[in-house]
Write a structure and sequence with these properties.
The chain is an all-alpha fold. 76% of the residues lie in helices and 0% in strands. The chain contains eleven helices and no strands. Helix 1 packs antiparallel against helix 2, helix 2 (23-33) crosses helix 3 and helix 6 (101-121) runs antiparallel to helix 11 (238-254).
Length: 255
């Protein structure tokens, strides 16, 4: 890896983190296009730079995260399933799933089909919650259960939480914002766990690359968040489903 690779991967992360297309999957596939070997550092890099995108959420939603105790407690309830399962399956995810392009491509492809079918049959309820503060603790916990499926690279944390929330009867804007908020403890924990286990093996240059990717993903993610909130006002997620399918087919048949 060089500095340009780190910056490019930071841009990819910032764009894709909050879209239902799988940022981890995109980082793995981008690494392939850049000719990067799936080293332990690259796997850690792909996890750690997601924290830069999460910092964008803290900047934009700090009041809900730090001041609103009820919202904080609901986010905590939603985080519990992923925290438990993440600890249990950490070694399997890091050792096997994060190096499997096949898993990523199948998850992207099948996820794209699911998104299209879901949107075709989905009807928003008129009495759906208008604001994230109206999400119940039960709904929050179940959204967390849905999020845990995204430990499989290519599934997409954003897609799992957003479509889980829609299935539970939440409005599109409501679950998208809750997905932003839930990303904060989830990625803090994932990055912290990985760095505790791996940071000792990093060189000084590795930390420079991490810093470059982190800062780039933070700046680009601010634009990504604003884009998604604007997009969902008048659109559904079918274009993302089509994109996922097209991306998987491209990598299957072109490379």
């Amino acid at each position: 890896m060089n500095l340009l690779d780190a910056l490019l991967l930071g841009i990819v992360e910032g764009i894709t983190e909050f879209l239902p297309v799988s940022s981890t999957g995109h980082l793995i596939l981008s690494g392939r296009l850049l000719g990067l070997s799936q080293t332990e550092f690259l796997k850690s890099f792909d996890i750690a730079i997601q924290l830069g995108a999460i910092l964008a959420v803290v900047l934009l939603y700090w009041r809900k995260l730090l001041v609103d105790f009820r919202m904080f407690s609901k986010i905590t309830a939603a985080f519990i399933p992923t925290a438990i399962l993440g600890l249990v399956f950490y070694k399997i995810i890091k050792r096997f799933l994060l190096s499997s392009e096949g898993v990523v491509l199948w998850a992207l492809f099948l996820g794209g089909i699911f998104i299209i079918l879901f949107e075709i049959f989905y009807k928003e309820k008129k009495d759906a919650p208008e604001d994230v503060s109206e999400i119940s603790y039960r709904q929050a916990f179940l959204i967390g259960v849905f999020q845990s499926v995204a430990m499989i690279p290519g599934v997409s944390r954003a897609a799992a939480t957003i479509f889980g929330g829609l299935a539970l009867g939440l409005r599109r804007k409501t679950i998208v914002e809750f997905s932003f908020l839930l990303a904060v403890p989830t990625m803090l924990a994932a990055t912290g766990l990985d760095l505790m286990k791996s940071a000792g093996s990093f060189s000084r240059g590795d930390f420079v690359f991490l810093g470059a990717g982190f800062l780039t993903s933070f700046l680009v993610a601010i634009l990504g968040i604003k884009f998604l909130l604007y997009f969902i006002k008048n659109n559904n997620f079918i274009p993302f489903g089509i994109y996922r399918i097209a991306l998987a087919l491209f990598f299957w048949f072109s490379l």
